[in-house]
Amino acid sequence: MNKSDIKKVVLAYSGGLDTSIIIPWLKENYNNCEVIAVSGNVGQADELEGLEEKALKTGASKLYVEDLTDEFVDDFVVPAMKAGAKYEEYLLGTSLARPVIAKRLAEIAIAEGADAICHGCTGKGNDQVRFELTLKHFVPDMPIIAPWREWSIKSREEEIEFAEAHNVPLKINRETNYSKDKNLWHLSHEGLDLEDAGNEPTYEKKGFLEMGVSPMDAPDVPTYITLDFEAGVPVALDGEKMSAKDIILKLNELGGANGIGLLDIVENRLVGMKCRGVYETPGGTILYAAHEYLETLCLDKMTMHEKQKLAITYGELVYNGQWYTPLREALAAFVDKTQEHVTGAVKLKLYKGNIIKAGAWSDWSLYSEEIATFGEDHVYNQADSAGFINLYGLPIKVQAKVDAKNKK
Predict the structure, then answer these.
(1) 29 CB-contact burial (10 Å; exposed 0-12 / middle 13-18 / buried 19+)
(2) How many Å apart are CA 227 and CA 233, to the nearest integer?
């Protein structure tokens, strides 16, 4: 990439520390190029306030604020949830948001006739991979600028110094400088005291949790909810029809109030290191639990077990930034087939960080109380099991006889 050829850059802009200082840095290091900031709204709420004024004051020519919330939920979150995709317990909140944002970046870059796309991901993180693999899918020949792989800045402290020297306004300070990512599905916390795996997260400290409360501070009485699904997709909460996005937002409120969805893990990053993070995913945790509960009724054994195996692969693909790949799309087709009859209702009890099953119903249920009962029934002949065991155990019996013969 020849810097002299870069006249217009589209920047993935959050207004956070990294992208706030990138605008003046780009102009200083890329021939005073035009910087078009793009903020993808995936549900980060108050983080979008005042972004336009901030972006323009720091040197951007314009700011796009794109509402991607419905696309994020319908085309990324729900498919991953239907698949049961997780990565080491992590429900992929950041991983799922990156491809939808990068897709829109590519579309705007094409529309604006940009010469390059820029992101603020660090060279230590997974997000650089997620952004760039998506961009390779949509704009394979577009140059990508990643300042963290170019500039001399080595730490967040130095970033703050750069911001202060260039009069870039910040909402953080040196003492509360957690690295966070927020959207309507989750909130992540990294850095500071969390870098020491021996430190307990300060869940009860005011201001640490943003999407809910610690289980210790949750109510002493449970909250019951009922979720309805059609073909694996959530369609109603407590009998009220809603979009999947609105269901998640409401579950965030209910789950957060009951201390649901906290996860503290040391995860294996794609770039080779282990990293400790604390995640808040109240609504997502409830949705996964409800969906998995309904599947126990509606999926046959072999389909369920194969789906559980493939969920690991699906989760790895999402985590590793490989959403737009043939394998992920093929797995999604498999998942959609498995979900054809995952229709019904699930009742859950939320209590102090716990999700307790309270009932499930489906017209497609494969569970038969008449067959499974410990009482008298007229549909299951228990004598049939003797022949089944004889045939099922025949290889074991033959092997035992062969072993005994050869030991003599």
Answers:
(1) middle
(2) 10
Pairing type for strands 116-118 and 8-12 reads parallel
pLDDT tens for each residue of 235-285: 999 999 999 999 999 999 999 999 999 999 999 999 999 999 999 999 999
Centroid of chain to Cα 270 = 15
Report angle CA 361, 308, 298 to the nearest 5 degrees: 20
Cα separations (Å) of 356 from 134, 235, 348?
Answer: 38, 21, 6
Specify the pTM.
0.93
Active site residues: 18, 98, 127, 179
Rounded to whole angstroms, the Cα distance separating 4 from 30 reads 7
- By CB atoms closer than 10 A (0-12, 13-18, 19+), residue 363 is exposed
- 273-289 core/surface letters (b: 16 or more CB in 10 A; e: else): eebbbbbbbbbbbbbbb
In the numeric block, which tokens belong to residue 321?
């930034």
Contacts 24+ apart (CB under 8 A), 239-248: 243/70, 243/73, 244/73, 244/74, 244/77, 244/78, 245/69, 245/70, 245/73, 245/74, 245/184, 247/283, 247/287, 248/73, 248/77, 248/184, 248/185, 248/283, 248/284, 248/287
Amino acid at 311: A
Helix (H, G, I), strand (E, B) or coil at 373: coil
Q: pLDDT, tens digit, for every residue of 164-173?
A: 999 888 766 5
pLDDT band with cut points at 50, 70 and 90 for residue 18: confident
Per the structure block, which two tokens stand in for 384? 């049939």
